[in-house]
Amino acid sequence: MRGIGFVTQDDVLFAHLTVKETLTYAALLRLPRTMTQQQKKERAMDIIHELGLERCQDTMIGGSFVRGVSGGERKRVCIGNEILINPSLLFLDEPTSGLDSTTALRIVQLLHDIAEDGKTVITTIHQPSSRLFHKFDKLILLGKGSLLYFGKASEAMPYFQSIGCAPLIAMNPAEFLLDLANGNTTDVSVPSELDDKVHMENHNLENNNSKIDYRPSAQDVHEYLVDAYETRVAFKEKKKLLAPLPISDDLKATITSSKREWGTSWWQQYSILFCRGIKERRHDYLSWMRITQVIATSVILGLLWWHSDPSTLKGLEDQAGLLFFIAVFWGFFPVFTAIFTFPQERAMLNKERAVDMYKLSAYFLARTTSDLPLDLFLPIIFMVIVYFMAGLKATATHFFLSMLTVFLSIIAAQGLGLAIGATLLDIKKATTLASVTVMTFMLAGGFFVKSVPPFISWLRYLSFNYHTYRLLLKVQYDPVPDILTTTRHMDSGGTEVAALVAMVIGYRVLAYLSLRRAKALGS
After folding, report:
1. Strand, helix or coil at 140?
2. How far apart are CA 369 and CA 126, in angstroms?
3. Given this model, what pLDDT does residue 484 score?
4. Which tens digit of pLDDT belongs to each residue from 103-128?
5. pTM of the entire structure?
6. Domains and CATH numbers, the chain
7. Boundaries of each ABC-2 type transporter transmembrane domain copy (predicted)?
């Protein structure tokens, strides 16, 4: 696989990385460890110059909701990702689809130049222009999965003329060949052999009142072209292809070796993926829309609970309601952010893992830890606003303990979202399951129902909302009033902290094992 490049029809790229960052990270991960980091970066820059991407190297790739480079530039970045490793064989799946004729010609000219440098380039292509067609060295024409022609592209038209199929009007060779492959003989001469066969088949239908069409059917044309190729060309071409070629023992050993060769060490893979993860997701996490959402919510809460007074029973219950809302809000928010992580990156993960860019463990740890700095930024803003506006205990100790409790809740909730997303790898199914789970955890959180039937009371111990709420109560009140608790005895909080830490670790282990299982099943 290290000697083969494959460019898919759909451009699988990170929308928020620039062209230069995309190729640099690919170079750092894919190129052999015998090269220094500086040499790998220089190789990425060489590819940028070779593909003519200098003008847009600092522009984001872009996507459905993000403005970025043009379609032709995106395709060149995808090709650059593969030719970084200097592959001897490059596959491309419809590289000109969706591009205008000028951009498509530029892409094909680029592929032609790569082939001129001694590489083998194999590409599927639909409806090429005549200028594109004349760039091809060899041509394979398929119809319904059967081979209709294989050989030099320049000899395709003479071959079909030799078997009686020739265009009756001036026509793009590619259009002519595609018409033949689909059995369409409009404006195409029909060979006498095929014409006679059709007349013989229709001879017995002359007495029928229905109108008889003497033109050959698509099936007749297909069978004729397959038979012509098998009798005239196939044996000679197969003999050429099956001729043995001398291969050195060193090359044989390299090709048959099953040992994986990673471009970097595990720690380097983690470091590179961590940096890439932060650069890619900072735009989503720190977008003005999300910051505004959190600030607006926190201000509204602060105004509703403005300087709440816990000295009265009504004020105490109101303040407990605020603490429960904080526990629920920062449990709900991270779950529905994290469930999209692996389903959205599934295509990228499959593509990069297929060429051994990194180990799954390095990717998983980098992906989960690179989210933490971004995940913890917004809660700080939220807590600073709400805590002091609502009149909660205004000491540094109580504030930071409340903040740490919220942080622990966020990391546990994020683990649940990762586990659901990695297990299902389907956004709709994951969202449905997460909705039911979060709703259950919220109802079992100890605020709405304090007297839970014994046969289902175990459910609350699985709820991170329950443990977070109890910790927040313990931070604010010492001792916690009986009216706010579901149990008589409340310890110093060690049980709740231990439960949340177990969730942080357990959910992530489940997510990692689910990803390994998905890889083993080939999904």
Report:
1. strand
2. 44
3. 73
4. 889 899 999 999 998 899 999 987 78
5. 0.87
6. 4-241 (3.40.50.300), 266-519 (no CATH)
7. 268-477
